[in-house]
Design brief:
This protein is α+β, with helices and mostly antiparallel strands and 422 residues long. It contains six helices and 20 strands. A hairpin with a 3-residue loop joins strand 18 and strand 19. It is elongated, with a radius of gyration of 47 Å. The chain starts with a helix and ends in a 5-residue tail after the last strand.
């Protein structure tokens, strides 16, 4: 009897130990398998809407200086990067043949003027002869015949015509002389404006041939210290936002590789050009950003990375974008009444079957887009998640604006499931 009592006591002790061990194991397994969610906080703050682009630094204006006349380069007076003033001589072309042309045309002009004097003298004599013949005819018509009168009259008229031709020849000679003098002046190539020589395309001793086209000698960029341009290519989908930013005088910040630690913050949108560029069915528009360049750090040809500020929205409720992308993949992690929110029709992006969108009317597509602002985020309620419906607005790279819904600053929203530790 005593043996059975002892056996019962031992079995009872073992059973109790097994029960407590199983209970602890159950609790441990439950704790171990309990989902552990990554969370982020809903905050109140600012969303800065921006668009990024790349661009090329270019001078506001590039003046291409050429030569109107031909000949060997006699003297080169400027070099790359030299600052020049308007009217400054940049180069000299051998002027000998042009000086000779001026001398020749000067002599030709003197000859034409002498011819005018000679014809004037003959004309005056003809006029005097005609006056005397008319006086004789008035005294007595038998003193001179009508034939002689006609001869004097037509002689005078012929000399008047010769005088007109001689005077026209003088004008032509003056024009030829002015042309020769202009060509002589063109042998001194001058700067059309203040600026910096960004390119020199000639060398001393080189011969220019300007018969068929004006040879390009220099490129001068005026006022590069005052202002320089950055040309950015903006996708057609964003050009409306860039236009809005321009109308609201929003700033543009940018960096160049030459100064990786410096941010340039004085950029402004100066122009949106109506000259689209299509490349592989991608349409872009040139947008001109202007910025001062007092230290000449920005040089033509540099590549700039730009950020266009579109709008700054302050004092708004915003939710991390990661929370909008998260969708629980296990119904056991979600309260039963929210299981229907896990249906594909409630997916985060509210996307429809792409095959059905092709022929969908535009007005219905637009309505779908407006309805697409409705989203669901998941907050921790006990050990499970509960769906909260919100309507979202604009976004930046990290947050999305909450227009309406059941969220408030300080709420924790799930962004993912932490991996289990082994």
């Amino acid at each position: 009897m005593r043996f059975y009592v002892k056996l019962f006591v031992v079995l009872a002790a073992l059973g109790a130990a097994a029960f407590f061990a199983w209970q602890k194991t159950k609790d441990w397994l439950k704790e171990r398998n309990k989902p552990d969610f990554n969370t982020a906080e809903v905050v109140e703050g600012t969303i800065r809407i921006t668009r990024n682009a790349t661009g090329e630094v270019k001078p506001v204006l590039s003046l291409h200086v050429g030569s109107f006349v031909s000949g060997p380069i006699e003297e080169l007076l400027v070099d790359f990067n030299d600052e020049v003033k308007e009217g400054q001589i940049l180069a000299k072309i051998d002027p000998r043949i042009y000086k000779a042309a001026v001398a020749s045309n000067t002599a030709a002009l003197a000859n034409r003027r002498a011819e005018v004097l000679r014809v004037k003298a003959q004309l005056q004599r003809a006029i005097n002869d005609e006056k005397r013949s008319l006086a004789l005819a008035a005294e007595n018509k038998d003193f001179i015949s009508q034939t002689d009168l006609d001869q004097y009259r037509f002689s005078r008229m012929g000399l008047e015509a010769q005088l007109t031709i001689a005077e026209a020849s003088v004008e032509q000679a003056v024009a030829n002389l002015e042309n020769a003098q202009a060509n002589l002046e063109y042998t001194e190539v001058k700067a059309p404006s203040d600026g910096i020589v960004t390119d020199r395309k000639i060398s001393p001793g080189q011969t220019l041939a300007a018969q068929f086209q004006t040879p390009e000698m220099f490129i001068i960029a005026p006022d590069m210290k005052k202002k320089i341009h950055i040309f950015a290519s903006i996708d057609e989908a964003d050009i409306g936002l860039i236009r809005e930013a321009k109308e609201n005088d929003q700033p543009v910040v940018f960096k160049v590789e030459a100064y990786p630690d410096e941010m340039f913050t004085e950029g402004v949108i100066e122009q949106i050009r109506l000259s689209p560029v299509s490349n592989q069915n991608v349409v872009t528009y040139p947008v001109v950003v202007a910025t001062p360049n007092p230290d000449m750090k920005l040089l033509p040809g540099m590549t700039a990375e730009l950020t266009f500020q579109i709008e700054v929205k302050k004092d708004i409720i915003k939710v991390p974008s990661a929370a909008l992308r998260y969708m629980p993949d296990n119904k056991e992690h979600v309260h039963e009444e929210d299981h229907d929110k896990l249906d594909l029709t409630y997916s985060l992006n509210h996307k429809e079957d792409e095959g059905n969108l092709e022929n969908k009317p535009l007005d219905e597509k637009d309505e779908s887009r407006r309805q697409g602002t409705k989203r669901h985020v998941w907050i921790l309620d006990g050990e499970k998640l509960r769906a909260k419906e919100i309507h979202v607005g604009v976004s930046d790279y990290k947050y999305r604006e909450v227009i309406s819904g059941e969220l408030k600053p300080g709420d924790k929203v799930a962004t993912g499931l932490k991996p289990k530790e082994n």
